[in-house]
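quick one before i forget lol
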Amino acid sequence: RSLLLGLVSSLCVFLSADFTSSLSITTPDQMIEKAKGETAYLPCKFTLSPEDQGPLDIEWLLSPADNQKVDQVIILYSGDKIYDDYYQDLKGRVHFTSSDLKSGDASINVTNLRLSDIGTYQCKVKKAPGVGNKKIQLTVLVKPSGIRCYVDGSEEIGNDFKLKCEPKEGSLPLQYEWQKLSNSQKLPTLWLPDMKSPVISVKNASTEYSGTYSCTVTNRVGSDQCQLRLNVVPPSNRAGTIAGAIVGILLALVLIGLIVFCCRKKRREEKYEKEVHHDIREDVPPPKSRASTARSYIGSNHSSLGSMSPSNMEGYAKTQYNQVPSEDFERTPQSPTLPPAKVAAPNLSRMGAVPVMIPAQSKDGSIV
């Protein structure tokens, strides 16, 4: 029995000595929440024992929130050198916080946080024969931002409308708080149930509701605020507004009709002027000279002789001869000593008519 007690005592001493001589990480497992764009500090502090004589190795791994992705080494210390280019998504954004890792501080900073940085980070420290590891859950949240306050409806007495508060982005859960900043600093009693919600429903509005209101949106990593001005006014004259709109439309139609009429009228006038100008150039021949008129007149008389019978040729010749305008002839000046030349009648035999001699006059006017 005494022998058994001695063995148990020896075992306890052995186990206690082994425990105290092993490497241990003093930082507990924990969860950290940070806002997007901020820097996350991930602690990992350890202690060594005299028995830990091997080379010091420190390794940080990331288990992404997406379970389909495998664990990734994000930074490593080995052989007195740091390697931080294993994981492209964190390259240049992960650093050891201590310049002397052998002092027992393997903590890191992750800067400019992104939503893709969400996951479980594991710190592993090894110095043979001691080995230790700890896990830290990192959650990246988005602060409320881009808050927009507005009135949904007509701000008139007796109307129903809504006051709305909408953030552009922000991680859930979000908390809302409405406040009145002007006039009486209290919200209307009917609004109290909605003062913690993003929408306030206003029923049968009155002028006492007018004022400046603020809405504050908050989550675990930040908050943002917006303001709106509510001005409840008497109902507008809708009938007058509608009548004015109708009159305006009619006037616009009349004006459009006048413009179209004027354009068509101008187009018809231009078309008429072009047609008249074209007719003048194509249908009206140029005026003829006096000489060409006389030749045409004589030529027409000669051409008509062929259709005359011998019985009336003499009378017709005399008549036509006397009808020729004297001013249309261009007589060749003759010498006074030479006898006048006899004018020979044209050869009418070729034209199917009897030849006729046209008498000539002497100086005293007698016919030769």
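fyi The chain has a mean pLDDT of 77.
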